[in-house]
Amino acid sequence: MSGSADESRPDVDALRAAADTMRAVRERCVWSQRITHRDLVPYLIEESHEVIDAVESGTRDDLREELGDLLWQVLFHAAIAAQDPDDPFDIDDVAATLTEKMVRRHPHVFGDEVATTPEEVLIHWNAAKAAEKRTRRSVLDGVPRGMPALALAQKLVGRAAGAGVTVSQSPVAATPASEAELGDALLALVATARAEGWDAERALRERLRLLEDEVRGAEAG
């Protein structure tokens, strides 16, 4: 039984070989054949966090391996999508869409715009992104609700500011002078929640729902 493209050959593209390997697995592995996009979500979350661990505390070998595992998830989703009877697309379509987007968002690299500072780059990026998302009616549109509550909170606070809604800092939140001290303060709040029998994750998510209501109210105006 033949496998994927021979990665030992110098003339074989490594990414293409990986895609071919995934396609073979999807077609021949009885476990992989029954997996859906939804089934893969827990693995995607786990692999993403393993990449984060490798970045923050792993070795270069760890990072290379974990990035490969995350890439496998992308290839797996693309292989599943390629078999969709109604709207199929494959990894080449994914790559083409990504390339088109990155070219649009970097007019200072691929066009005539000029950006000499990171701030100017961000202006071009945001302008291109806004043009792509003309159908969005709220600054909250496009924020993935599956994010962990703390990451979601940071994202929503930034989006809320764009709608003119500010979230006041409590004295506790204003005290930390570094990320390390902020970590201490957050950990202390979680310890308080545990002592009181509260669910810190749920408490933050419920407060975020109120923030979203404030933002949509401000937008409606």
UniProtKB/TrEMBL annotation:
Entries under CDD domains matching the protein: NTP-PPase_MazG_Nterm (cd11528)
NTP pyrophosphohydrolase MazG-like domain mapped to chain residues: 36-110
Annotated Pfam families: MazG (PF03819)
Name this polypeptide is given: MazG family protein
Annotated source species: Microbacterium sufflavum
